[in-house]
């Protein structure tokens, strides 16, 4: 037997009408769209908060070591170890005689367990030298600059000129030369050069990518606002 509508006629095209949405589905969809809209409107702030947490937590490690909570501190070191080499001669130190130490100074203090990279990175500090952060100097500069550049981008947004990928190479080149030449043992870098090259790279990343992200977020925002007339 052929299904018909209540008026005895088939709907246009002869197909059955779609089933009604389950109760509450429209409300769930509306809440989800509001969440998406909120992200589209405030994505820069969310990025900055995420980066602030990422670069801030490594500074908790030396603080926890200083107050005797070595277990939680070493968990932070462990979590960040896949993302950063954590070499003591390329990291900041807190609660010690200096904030930075060269490899020669650490070797003279007789605190490094070995000459290899894997052995050196295990040294987290002591009461005299202080305790190292769980992110190296270059990474702190990269993500710290991305936070500052992100806040600046939030002020200009659509007025910001786009960075050409070719020009981005100029921001990438200093960190590449500094890092690779040091890795090959051709020269020794220092904390301010690592910080400068890292900051240039972080600035270039924001300048290159954020305008494109803003364009995508503007499109999402326009679609959601049009859907509900917001």
Main sheet, how many strands, which sense, barrel?
Answer: 3 strands, antiparallel
Question: What sequence of helices (H) and strands (E) makes up the elements?
Answer: HHHEHHEEHHH
Strand order in the sheet with the most strands = 1-3-2
Strand segment tally: 3
Structural class: mainly alpha
Shape: elongated
Ends distance: 46 Å
Count of all domains: 1
Helix content: 55-70%
Q: What percent strand?
A: 5-15%
Kindly state the mean pLDDT as a whole number?
Answer: 90
What's the alpha carbon Rg, rounded to whole Å? 27 Å
Tally the helices: 8
Low-confidence spans: pLDDT under 50, at least 5 residues? 1-7
Keywords:
mainly alpha, 230 residues, disordered N terminus, three-stranded antiparallel β-sheet, 60% helix
Topology:
Layout: H1 25-56, H2 60-66, H3 70-80, E1 91-94, H4 103-108, H5 117-120, E2 125-126, E3 130-136, H6 137-156, H7 165-183, H8 191-228
Antiparallel strand pairs: 1-3, 2-3
Helix pairs in contact: 1-6, 1-8, 2-3, 6-8, 7-8
Q: Outline of this structure?
A:
The chain has 230 residues and is mainly alpha-helical. Helix 1 packs across helix 6, helix 1 (25-56) runs antiparallel to helix 8 (191-228) and helix 6 runs parallel beside helix 8 (191-228).
Report what the structure shows:
Strands 1-3-2 form a three-stranded antiparallel beta sheet. 60% of the residues lie in helices and 6% in strands. The longest helix is centred in the C-terminal third of the chain and has 38 residues, at 191-228. The chain is mainly alpha-helical and 230 residues long. The chain has one domain (41-222).
């Amino acid at each position: 037997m052929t299904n018909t509508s209540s008026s005895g006629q088939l709907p246009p095209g002869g197909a059955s009408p779609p089933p009604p949405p389950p109760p509450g589905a429209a409300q769930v969809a509306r809440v989800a769209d509001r969440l998406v809209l909120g992200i589209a409107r405030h994505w820069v702030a969310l990025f900055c908060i995420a980066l602030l947490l990422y670069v801030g937590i490594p500074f908790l490690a030396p603080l926890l070591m200083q107050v005797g909570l070595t277990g939680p501190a070493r968990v932070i070191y462990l979590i960040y170890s896949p993302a950063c080499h954590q070499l003591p001669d390329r990291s900041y130190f807190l609660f010690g005689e200096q904030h930075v130490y060269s490899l020669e100074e650490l070797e003279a203090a007789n605190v490094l367990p070995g000459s290899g990279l894997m052995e050196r990175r295990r040294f987290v500090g002591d009461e005299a030298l202080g305790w190292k952060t769980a992110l190296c100097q270059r990474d702190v500069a990269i993500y710290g600059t991305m936070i500052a550049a992100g806040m600046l981008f939030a002020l200009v947004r659509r007025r910001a000129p786009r960075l050409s990928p070719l020009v981005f190479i100029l921001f990438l080149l200093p960190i590449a030369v500094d890092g690779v030449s040091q890795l090959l043992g051709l020269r020794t870098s220092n904390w301010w050069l690592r910080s400068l090259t890292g900051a240039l790279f972080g600035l270039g990343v924001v300048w290159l990518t954020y305008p494109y992200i803003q364009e995508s977020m503007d499109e999402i925002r326009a679609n959601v606002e049009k859907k509900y007339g917001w």
